[in-house]
Structures
1.
Amino acid sequence: MTFSRKIERFLAEDPSPATTVMRLSTRSLILICSITFAAFLVSTAVAIFFCRYTRRKFLSNVSSEGKAVTLEHLKGPRTFTYKELRKATRNFDETMILGSGGSGAVYKGILSPSGIVIAVKRPRHKSGSGEKAFVAEASSVSQIRHRNLLQLLGWCQEENNYLLVYEYMSNGSLDGWLFPGRRRHPNGPNYKRSGVLPWELRSSILAGVAAALDYLHEDWVQCVLHRDIKSSNVMLDADFNPHLGDFGLARLMDHEKLGETTLVAGTLGYMAPEIPFTGKATKESDVYSFGILVLEVVCGRRPLNLQAEGPDEEFVLLQSVWRAHEAGDILRAVDMRLLKRSESSTDTTTQESLDTQKVDTLKSADECKMAHLLHLGLLCCLPNPEARPSMRLVRQVIMDLQSTAPEDTTKLSTPYLLPALPLSRPSGCYSLIRLDRLSSTSTSVCSEAPLKSL
């Protein structure tokens, strides 16, 4: 018989008062421990339920009707009052509008008494959809930090007023510099002082946007799909550094769950051809949109020429560049203002300090880089999504071109990072509408091989 069994038998058989008290104390201790443990289990269950309930409320983006949307779970940017933003924008005066689009208007604001200049985005709708867009954009960019992403400074949410506050970009959007007709203030001093956007700045702007997208796709804790990359969403600061903005359509996805998104969004002309068929936004669809942006910046033309009247006029920019490539003269697609500017600037330089041979070297180097960027833009817009390069490879190619010296003719002629481009536009997996010819063609075979990302 074990020692514990002997103790139990002794307590059961011994009728003395001391033994009785000991037996009662043992039972009380067991009862107290049982009650305490049960209370602990109940309180733990209540705490877990409360945490899950609170998390579901945050993830629902928009609360039920009559209740305010909350962003208290976000950290970083500050909260502004509606009163101070109304004062900063002169009661949202039309003269303070910097730009407007489908998602709302952006106003210039000056905070008192600091005098800090800000940009205030006011959603177009005050309904539930406006609240949802407000939360989506704030949630997308509140925690993201990159030198080429537009910085969110804060927000305001009072009753039905949902406002986002961004850093102010004094040189406006990229499309205003590419297309004078898109300028809201065409007589602004910045436009008069700078004139045509030079090649060096255009190349630098594309490098900055590529770096931002590479960060969003690969380097942040979650993969961010922007879904609306276009020139009007690229903002320029005082030094013409690019800042990718307008995250109203952006979505945060876990890297291992990228294939699960079924959110269709974008802008006609920039949207990848597979999206209407697959219903999915992906990294590859962002790459396609960036490719269109590259063509737009180098060619100085909009993705779709809505002013085209006859069948012979170029309506779709992408198809126009493919034709130039197939004809063996891709430089004919380049913005003529760039080529004229290059000629005039090199002529002046010749008179001052350079001999004719070096001028020809500089001119040919710029033209080589323009041709290579058009080459890269076409690669990004291949019909087969799997054949498009990753944004990491795209960024590395652009950086490599920027760092190549004009005298390095071997590297300029064949950049080692730039994949080969088909001699003609390959067939894709999806039916494409040939808008310029007003006829449709269908294909079902993907002929190009996937490009390996670095």
2.
Amino acid sequence: MKNKMENIVNYKSNHKFLDIPYELREFMKNDTYSLLIKGKPGSGKTTLSLSILRSLKVKNNFFYISTRSSPKQLVEHYPWLQKFTKDTKDIDNEEVSPNLSSFEDARLDEPESLFERVTNQLMDVKNPMIIIDSWDSVASLMDREARLNNERVLQTWRERAQAKLIFTSEESVESSLESIVDGVLELNYQYMDEIRLRSLFLRKLRGIPIKRSLYFFSLKNRILRCFDSYDPREFKINKLEKIPKEKNYSKQILQTGYDDLDKYLGSALPHNGLVTVEKDNVLSNDIVLLFLNDLLYNFARKHYNLLLDSTIRDKLILEYKSNIHNYSKLFASVQLYGSHEIRMQGQLKQKDGFYKHISKTVAKLEGKGKTVCMVESNSLDSFISTYSDLEDYCKFIKKKFELSFLILNSNDNVEKYYSAADIQLKFILNCGTLFFKCSIPASALFGVHVVNSMPQIQLYHVL
């Protein structure tokens, strides 16, 4: 038991976006097992069962028996399955490739015929993996006694053949199969602001310690990806000795640099737009700083000037020892309005003084390219108290900057900035899992994890 838990921890240290949960991967290292995947229609049962093949790199010695789809339909719905066949155009022709028989059409099979298929594989093939999708279509044609007997027979043959047997089911109540199989997974989904959030519950995995029973996942690209639990220690900025050799863009493109987020928001961020960024109070401040550090890297490659709030600059460079000094193209511009000129907080108490200071700074950059601005909301609290003040501020920054990021970290009433935002972003924590939520222009959710490269935060669209 101790060794299995250590394996889970070691796997966790090397993987972030999980194709399947750690505990499930350990369970599948057993020589033989039976697993039931249950969930309502559309919860992802077929995708999970196929993703198991992909995760374990099982390209032969498996048999996928579908009572709902033909092999050709499966490949059309899951294009990555082409790796398991040599010629997808002739997938229904079993003579084309020996692997093509791995996907079998049992839509018209009677229970006796299906059992014959399965038992033949168990007798003729050594250590096969057999997936029956779905068991309901077969069980519904049997009475209770016949069903119990056949389920026990399958388990006995599975043990003798040292096989792996996986069932899918849409039964909402506990069935007789659950008490017989070695593992039970339950898939579900809920809605969060019109976003479908999918979850995987590890109900039972015989012999495996379940450290975490609930995982959220995405079906982006029709591949199951689970999201790991939130660990604040992972969000400390890594001081890389060398910046990765990424190509610099000759053309300025107003994008965040996060592929999934940029695809969702469109081809480019709004010209002269305002983006608000915030986090749940329970989350570490390092999350937002790491996000801003990634943005710095991205805009530096695209030759934008970048005006930083003094507190953001000090935290990134001094407190968190960020590697932004290595962004020579970016900080050649920043030095024009360095620490002596952007000490806004504590010195500029009046609105007019703030605007004059910013105008002076931007004037020095005239003719040197477009500028992106990053400011914390607590730097504005001293002079933005009314809706009229907020309107004045928005008009001003939209006139001066190509794009502005406003980090909402005031102690209270950050909601007053929502109405002014063109894009509203927030890091949130849900059942121990970190997500990145876009509320404006429309609701979207992204899984979050950290990598030791640039950008250091990776976002994965929840679909």
3.
Amino acid sequence: MNLAAVLLCLLVCFTAVTSDRVYVHPFNLFSFNKSTCEELESQVQEGKKTFVPISIESNSTPAYEDDLNDKDKLEAPSLNSWGRQKLKYMKNFVYVLGVRFYRMLQKAQQGQNVLLSPTSLYGSLVSFYLGASNKTAADLQRLLGFVPPSGDPDCTSRVDGHKVLSSLRTIENLVKSGDKDLLFSKMLCLFSAPGIPLYQLFMEDLLPSADALYSRAVDFRNPREAAKQINAFVEAKSEGQSKCLLTDIDPSADLLFAVDVHLAVNFKQASQPKEPQEFWVDSNTKVLVPMLSVTGTFKYKTDASGTFSVVEVPISKTVLLVLLQPINGSDLEHVESQLPLESSAWLQELSPREIKLTLPKLTIEGSYDLQELLANMELPALLGKGADLSKISDGNLTVGKVINKAFFKLTGDGTDQPEEPAAETEDVVFLDVTLNKPFLLAVFEEKSRTMLFLGRVTNPLH
């Protein structure tokens, strides 16, 4: 082989090895390309097929629902190099938007427990993006964090919502991957006014976004009866997990959207002390709550000003729990006001420490109307009466509530633990970390480090 051929061979090999390191703009990982732009034109006629949801009072299961909830069709993409790059950027988009929503709730619900699911809220907006056109689609794309690197007017300047939902579903499947001590479920429901046709393609597009997808017709003109019917339906379909989804309904609405996400973890390494322990709701109020105790090597830090500490604990094979508590006399309200949550710096630079951790057993939930959150962000028109949702239905839809309900439960295996860690020796000193006053929590999927839940615990008994 001559020298030129050898050099050519080496160049090809080097290119193959380093090709995965080529920078790709995050927008291009999720956008349409030229070939898919052409395919979109051929899907126009297919997208016009409609169906009318059956009444919520019907006991039958519609044929379209059997197809939609066929679990064999829920195939998550593999985590190849492209998939990993997508998740790297997706976690940042989810985090930024989730924190923005949390800031709204932090102000509106001072002194109360708060729990939201950034992945669920983000997925809800992506769902409406798939049903939107023109300015509404552009505004939703911008809110989701996708800004095209160039101003090309064709469809390559648009994000492919299917790719985004697929990445979100990959994260959720990673959470559920073979861990028997964890239960994760997500249910999506669309309730429409009687006789309103919905595009079949839109419903099929939502398939990757939940474990179960239901669509029913409800007469919103009687708000009290409609709320009663919807609550009963959701409770039955969730097998009693979700109760009291709604308290009121806008009678002028044509569409109501609801997502219910549950995560329950049995933290096997944690034990439960025999006696409840004190938890200070505020400086004057204490309650007795069941606690969990666990000893091990966990990541930990205190901030430079000494006002809060952060500990990261793997509570299952696929889920991390991050706990932030005020220290040295500071309170949570002060920490929240000073903490730049918009930056993920508070989650970084943690170091391994030998820790004895004591925290409350947790059962916390939150239910929020995305419409209200958008209004608080001065975006009331985004899904308002003027929104172009012409890919959901051919009529002018009025979207009512967009409910996102989140539930997180943490328990231990119920056994008692010795007063002092068995592993403690003269050479090992365990840091005692006890969460006995209001604190922040965040739950992450372990591989991608995507934030699944973000919340505040002011009283574990509520």
